[in-house]
Structure formats: structure tokens, C-alpha cells
Amino acid sequence: xxxxxxxFQQTKTESSAKEDQLPIDPAQFDALVNKRVEQELHRLFAxxxxxxxxxSDPHRALLDAxxxxxxxxxxxxxxxxxxxxxxxxxxxxxxxxxxxxxKVPESVTRAQKEVVECYRDHQGRPLDCWAQVEAFKxxxxxTQTDHWKEAL
Length: 152
What we know:
Mean pLDDT: 75
Largest sheet: none
Shape: flat
Oligomer: single chain
InterPro entries: DUF1690
Region (Disordered): 1-26, 61-82
Structural class: mainly alpha
């Protein structure tokens, strides 16, 4: 029972501490965020003095520094957005190159339409459409089987 009392006291203390922390006011939150952004900008300008000489718009200077070929971006070893986008494009092309499209047979399309019509006709009672769903699943299964037989 003494361990139960200790756990109760600990829980009571933790809940009291949480109650003492009031939610932050939105104005205070905005001020806190702005302060942290300013601190981060000052840190960046201290690390990269060429940014502070870039002119009146420090945000533009940061964006320019991130462009491909920029000495700041190269020195930091960062990948540019364009390089990342190009990598993604090549990966997508590689993936799409290996995928062959299969013409969907009329039986699958017809079964799909029957399922959709049944769901529309029986809104609120989707279990009434079990027969149409099973017919659709069977037609898809048969199409897949036929496709693999042709492929092998």
C-alpha cells in the first residue's frame, strides 16, 4: 500500500504541474515563432557572410544561395531542389518503363458498373450488393489468371 500511495502522490504532483502550465496565448505564440525565425536568420547570416551583402532582401539571398551552382550550396554539400526533382523524374520513368498496361476486358468493366449501380441504389445498405461484389472480384481474378497464363 505504501507503493500505491507513492504512485498516487507522484501522479497528483504531475497533474498539478500540468495544471500550472497554462496554454500559450496566440499573440505570445506568434511572437515566439517570430523570435525563433529571427534567431535562425541571424545564425545563417553569421555562418554565411555573403548572404548579408546580397542586398535588401535576405530571404531572396537565401533562396539564391540554394540554387544549383551556388558556392554556398556547394560548400554546404546540399542537394539542390532541381537535382532532387531530376532524381525523382528518373525514378518515375524507370518505374513506369517496367509497367505494362493491360486492357481491361468488358466483363470486368460491366461487373464494376453493376457494383457501382448497386451501391447507388442501396445507399445505407451496402451489404445488399454482396453478389455484385463477388461477381466483380471473380471477373478480376479471372482476368489476372488469364494475363499471367499469357505472360508465362
